[in-house]
Amino acid sequence: MTPTEPLVRGGAAEQPAVRPPLPVKMVIAGGFGVGKTTAVGAISEIEPLTTEASITEVAAGVDDLTHTPAKTTTTVAMDFGCITIDPTLKLYLFGTPGQERFGFMWDDIVEGAVGGLVIVDTRRLDDCYAAVDYFEHRCIPFAVALNAFDGRVEHSLEEVRWALDVSEHVPVVVFDARERGSVRDALLVVLELALARTEG
Ligand SMILES: Nc1nc2c(ncn2[C@@H]2O[C@H](COP(=O)(O)OP(=O)(O)OP(=O)(O)O)[C@@H](O)[C@H]2O)c(=O)[nH]1
Ligand SMILES: [Mg+2]
């Protein structure tokens, strides 16, 4: 066959295979009610799989709903969604449950992930320490995304960086968990980190 001859001669078997996009697992983590399920739902190209349970009166006494009074459900296992970044890469998103009592599931959810996005509500910084610690201790690349509830964040990026005591290599970005483009940009920051890790 000369170089100018087409690869396809009629038989399907002779057609060059089109590779499916590379599947990449990423975790959306953070404290209770910071917007993890919202973020997965905003970006997923499939109907996201959710495991929401109603917040009972008993749980409402345990979980702080002060800043999210409209919240009526909570994730009890995980969120799942996906987004094709380009023809070569597809992100599979796994959202963690936010409540501490479901922390035992995190290892299973994070297994095999290239990185994580830790969502933070700047009105309740304390709630995200556990998630930040989790990724730091396991040396999993992660970025911190400040969810701009009601369009604003309570502290500057530098103040949050200082309060969380994250290394200068950890990107801190502001985003809106309800906005598809905003979530996409935040995920791309994590992806870039993960790629740099594999190349480095
Ligand atoms: N105003 C505003 N509300 C938001 C934003 N993101 C999430 N919410 C609301 O905040 C509440 C919490 O969102 P969820 O997505 O359920 O939070 P979560 O982190 O998945 O919560 P758990 O799984 O229970 O830990 C919901 O009532 C959302 O509608 C945001 O960016 N701005
Ligand atoms: Mg949730």
UniProtKB/TrEMBL annotation:
<keyword id="KW-0378">Hydrolase</keyword>
<protein>
    <submittedName>
        <fullName>ATP-binding protein</fullName>
    </submittedName>
</protein>
<dbReference type="GO" id="GO:0016787">
    <property type="term" value="F:hydrolase activity"/>
</dbReference>
<dbReference type="GO" id="GO:0005525">
    <property type="term" value="F:GTP binding"/>
</dbReference>
<keyword id="KW-0067">ATP-binding</keyword>
<dbReference type="InterPro" id="IPR004130">
    <property type="entry name" value="Gpn"/>
</dbReference>
<dbReference type="GO" id="GO:0005524">
    <property type="term" value="F:ATP binding"/>
</dbReference>
<dbReference type="InterPro" id="IPR027417">
    <property type="entry name" value="P-loop_NTPase"/>
</dbReference>
<dbReference type="Pfam" id="PF03029">
    <property type="entry name" value="ATP_bind_1"/>
</dbReference>
<keyword id="KW-0342">GTP-binding</keyword>
<comment type="similarity">
    <text>Belongs to the GPN-loop GTPase family.</text>
</comment>
<dbReference type="InterPro" id="IPR052705">
    <property type="entry name" value="Gliding_Motility_GTPase"/>
</dbReference>
<keyword id="KW-0547">Nucleotide-binding</keyword>
